[in-house]
Amino acid sequence: MRDHKHNVGSPDRDRINVNRTNELQDWTKTLGISADALRAAVQNLGPVIATVREHLGK
């Protein structure tokens, strides 16, 4: 297992950080949408996961 030294601190489990590649990849896979669609949703709705999921119907 690799040690990700840039991923320090505890993750905020209630928010999506589209500026972190690993989070962007995980959430696009989980939600089944493109990175551009996720970025747009976060820009328009904010980073709260529950709000983004509700908007996307997921």
From TrEMBL:
It comes from the Bacteria. Residues 1-20 are annotated as: Disordered. InterPro entries: DUF3606. It holds the Pfam family DUF3606. This is DUF3606 domain-containing protein.
